[in-house]
Specification:
about 15% strand; Rossmann fold; 12 strands; 2 domains; alpha/beta
Length: about 325
Amino acid sequence: MNPTVLITDYVWPSIDAEKRILKEINANILIAPTGDESTLIKMATKADAIITCFAQVTDKVILSAKNCKIISRYGVGVDNINVDTATKENIIVTYVPDYCIPEVSDHVIAMMLTWNRKILKHHNQTKTQGWSSVSLNDRIMRLNDKYLGIIGYGRIGKTVASKASAFGLNILVYDPLIPEETQDSLVTFVSLEELLTKCHFITLHAPLLESTKDLMNEDQFSLMRPDAFLINAARGGLINEKALYNAITSKKIAGAGLDVLVDIDPPIDHRIINLENVIITPHTAFFSQESVIELEERAAKEVVRVIKGEMPDNIINPNVISTSRANITTK
């Protein structure tokens, strides 16, 4: 019998790439009309595999998927998947950890430059008020010898550091998994407190875990410079939004560049979106045509491997391999 693959959601024009890859196993593809839990519970009963983007793959969805061998995430984080339940049910969970490193790191640098050079403000003023309308009273920094702080020094954090070094920035890094005495020619490892107090720009590149939820809260904002600009192209939950709103409106920090919020589909009147000192993009830091094709192909290829009994490339719960429903052959 041909395997059935449930695609819970996607945000690109088509799934032609997935269809081409999944043709290798003659898969029947089901596309969920909505990502709500009740719909996914019903559709998961037929699934041998699930590919998911932003939809919540809850414990109830997983428990209904009695034949499911793999849940493949379109993306880096897996906070929308109940990994613990999947593991208990001997279901492999995979992800694509490195598909959009160029795009996200570019986006972070673009946020920093757009803010510092006042590109959006001067563009809007010139378009609406004329060439002579722009005053030069805003703070615009010479970046050379200023400080950029990177919280989380994984693949994307390291790429941001490499690109930012071209501007002559001093780069400070905090990552609790990397000792402060670690040597790196591009960056200096410091405590979180030192990074927050020194840096003119701070960018977040940590996963969203219970330990990192509200990583940036009132205490952290109180340590930051009044001219600091915070960038988040990682996960919305890393920032306590009430604390961020208060920090910006009370001028404890200068502003923020956000590609993510806690709400994955925030209303247009969201109070942070409407702050003048916030640059906002709708979770598009990952996007280029090239990155999306890569993402689609690699997520689908993980399904093909597991259905064929082969080891996936990037597995979140490797301890499940020996007992997995897929009967993986290890070499």
